[in-house]
Structure to design on (262 residues):
């Protein structure tokens, strides 16, 4: 019974604004993490069902391209987590909705503060050599 | 209505099952903030992916019941949150017969992942290290 085409209109007819961008990023990052969860449950199932195949897949995860993708996954997860908290805070404390822009900037400050060091740690083996 | 108060969340449904799902999305979301970020911290920061072989999982990561229970809880939370979230996306963009077909496939996929994840958590033998 939800309004069926509301999201459709919003994504196709871009009208800018932080609230709209926050919503679009939340949706895109959510679908991205969902897609990875499907892959991840299947790969972990292989640990029991076919350990050799799992280890081969793991080598891809640990490769330079795999590490870039992991970083993007981490970015999607971290944005979705932080903006999700912002949504929860506004949903249960509607007065704070007045500051939805400021809250979104706060999301980005925390995102960069946590995300940069984590990205560094994940990507570092690309140029330092993968640990044995 | 409540629309002006929802700058990026879904408008709060009036009552019934949809309202329950609306609340559960927020409850599981808050729980996932802790569970998913802790999981990511462990397998991407504290340990490097290069060392996480199948035997590492059996001997180290899943050698304790606590971490198996933790990861299984994470799976239950994420299956609800991610599939209900994608359901919202599907309902936004797809109508009629296609919507029914895609939602059915979505729930089937969630069921398969529930079985696969639960089976591997319960049946992967605990291998003594060495």
């Amino acid at each position: 019974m939800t309004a069926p085409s509301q999201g459709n209109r919003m994504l196709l007819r871009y009208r800018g604004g932080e609230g709209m961008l926050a919503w679009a990023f939340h949706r895109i990052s959510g679908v991205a993490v969902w897609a990875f969860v499907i892959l991840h449950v299947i790969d972990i199932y292989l640990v029991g069902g076919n350990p050799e195949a799992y280890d081969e897949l793991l080598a891809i995860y640990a490769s330079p391209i795999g590490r870039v993708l992991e970083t993007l996954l981490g970015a999607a997860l971290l944005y979705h987590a932080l903006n999700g908290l912002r949504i929860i805070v506004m949903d249960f404390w509607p007065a704070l909705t007045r500051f939805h822009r400021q809250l979104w900037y706060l999301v980005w400050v925390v995102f960069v503060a946590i995300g940069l060091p984590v990205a560094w740690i994940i990507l570092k083996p690309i140029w330092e050599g993968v640990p044995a | 209505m409540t629309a002006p108060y929802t700058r990026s969340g879904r408008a709060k449904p009036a009552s019934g099952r949809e309202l329950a799902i609306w609340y559960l999305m927020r409850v599981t979301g808050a729980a996932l903030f802790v569970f998913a970020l802790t999981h990511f911290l462990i397998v991407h920061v504290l340990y490097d992916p290069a060392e996480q072989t199948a035997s590492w999982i059996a001997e180290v990561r899943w050698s304790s019941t606590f971490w198996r229970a933790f990861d299984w809880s994470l799976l239950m939370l994420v299956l609800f949150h991610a599939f209900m979230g994608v359901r919202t996306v599907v309902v936004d963009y797809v109508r009629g017969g296609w919507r029914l077909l895609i939602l059915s496939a979505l729930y089937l996929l969630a069921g398969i992942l529930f079985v696969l994840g639960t089976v591997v958590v319960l049946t992967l033998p605990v291998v003594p290290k060495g």
Confidence is low (pLDDT under 50) at residues 1-6 of chain B.
